[in-house]
Amino acid sequence: MDILTVLGSMGSLVLVTLIGYVAARAGFLTSDVRPRLSALIFNVTLPCTILASVGEVDSSAGTEQVTWSFVLGSALFFVMLAAAALACLALRVPCEERPLYLFMGVLTNTGFIGFAVLESLFGGGSVFLGSIFIAVSNVFLYSIGVGVLTSGDTGEKDVATARSSRFSGVLKNVLNVPMVASVIALVVFFSGVPLPGPVAQAVDMVGGATSPLAMMLVGLAIAEADLGQVLGNGRLWGFSAIRFLLVPAACYLLLAPVVPDALSLVVFIVMLAMPTGSMAAAIASTYGRPGELLSQGTIVSTIASFVIVPLLMLLM
Q1: What is the chain's alpha carbon radius of gyration, rounded to the nearest angstrom?
Q2: CA distance 148 to 132
Q3: DSSP assignment of 163-191, as one string?
Q4: What is the maximal distance between C-alpha atoms in the chain?
Q5: Residue 220, domain CATH
Q6: The pTM is what?
Q7: Domain total in the chain
Q8: Contact at 8 Å (CB) between 94 and 239?
Q9: Most exposed of 8, 50, 173, 176 (fewest Cβ within 10 Å)?
Q10: Digit-coded pLDDT (tens) for 41-92
Q11: DSSP labels, 91-156
Q12: What integer pLDDT is reported at residue 286 of this predicted model?
């Protein structure tokens, strides 16, 4: 894949984001529809995208790709956490803000923007592999990741009650619809029994809405933000450069001679480079943490990703 193809694909995503921005400014997209639209993507169109992607995996190399996706997917969360910790150290992030920056580095937009980038650049087969990455790393995200976010909590909450509540919350977040769709996709892949024609066509049609809807939501978030304040946060730009560009680039240079399957490695790097997810602030607020910094991080890292991804594709 040449750089012009990459720039063209990323340019399309940027244009869809701009359409979302204009629609928000015109009043067609508003903050009150965002929760329901996010729920529609997460619970309906994204699972359909995952199911539709199974048929596009190269069967001759599929088993090796799936194996490496499991291996790299298991490492993904820990690499993201280490990268965020490195960025905090390099930028001298204050102690009270470190849990927020660490969470900002591990709760990334792999599901929405990640799938949009993968499908645009590498086709549906990469989306299936990406679903494996997400399914594996989410187990760590909603357990260790939430633990990192709530580290240093000094509240008087009963310890046993807190642990029980946290455990049930982890199970609820891990056992979600995209996770179920990923498991079904794996069953379909390994069984060799394809989805019935009408079902395959239906999930393909519905899944086609995932990328445009996800990018338009990004445009809505940008339209609602105070861009002057957000874009003036130098530490967030530095964090984005280290966490989402330098570390993924270094990982590619280290892993390229070791990982034999090129597509699995590329999916790993793309997932590693995805910006902070829009749900980060909401989850932080759920656990009593301020969400403003995370919201700003989402916007800065998302804007930066339109430059970061082409740079990484040029490197690879």
Answers
A1: 19
A2: 23
A3: HHHHHHHHHHHHS-HHHHHHHHHHHHHHH
A4: 57
A5: 1.20.1530.20
A6: 0.75
A7: 1
A8: no
A9: 8
A10: 878 887 888 788 776 655 555 577 888 888 898 899 899 999 999 999 999 9
A11: HT--GGGHHHHHHHHHSB-IIIIIHHHHHHHH-HHHHHHHHHHHHHHHHHIIIIIHHHHTTT----
A12: 62
